[in-house]
# Entry
Amino acid sequence: MKSEHNSGRKIVRMTKSQRIQHVILFVSTTLLVLTGFMLQADMWLIELFGDYGEIVFDIRSWLHRASGVIVSAVCVYHLIYVITTKEGKSWVSDMLPRIRDAVDAYQNVMFMIGFRKQKPKLDRFMYLEKLEYWSVYFGMTIVIITGIMMWTEYLWPKFYLEVANALHLGEAVLATLAIIVGHIFSVHYNPHVYPMNRTFIDGMISEEMMKDEHELWYEREMKKSDEPAAGTSDNDKH
Ligand code: HEM
# Structure
């Protein structure tokens, strides 16, 4: 970390609503991954559970569907949240891709391989965070539509179901890998946060990390006030 001293000051990065949405997404997606991929190893797993194999697989099937309903509900809620609330509008507007993100990405790569002395000043959400956020919209749209199709299989011709199944499985693999690689780095192995980034629990980011990883945002918030409220609305009850 660049800062020579640690001020101990913390700033709100995720509000209570955002943390609740995130935890629901996290728990339901984990359940979806576990109960979904169990199907890929069905015979082996059924034998592993012995006499309970069939029951375990029935529970798996219902857990997958129930988590699917929960994840769909949180996605719909999130859409309403970003359209109707001040804090949601600010969130999504700061997430919109801009030309600057491509410049940031280029400059950051140059910095990391030693062709640039200074790293770019990144905003509230940097290009990788934006990519991850919009990938969830893309991925969830695919798994929700194809999941509902497989759930209501009696309504669809065989060919449509096969396509839905291939898309569902493909997106499930992609999403699982993206979560494992992207999230495990940003939540655990990023040297600024190791062994664990607690922002998703307490909603706070340290002043040092904000300055180092989101310098542009830091400077803007500092200009606005001595007590920055991190791009959130006046009534954020952290
Ligand atoms: C991140 C989200 C999700 C992941 C990782 C995921 C993963 C999977 C996987 C790996 C399979 C097995 C495919 C195969 O073996 O051919 C599957 C099947 C299925 N999924 Fe999902 N899924 C997700 C979301 C959903 C949602 C949102 C729904 C419903 C709205 C859903 C409903 C289904 C259904 C009905 C099946 C058919 C087989 C079964 O589980 O009984 N899935 N899913």
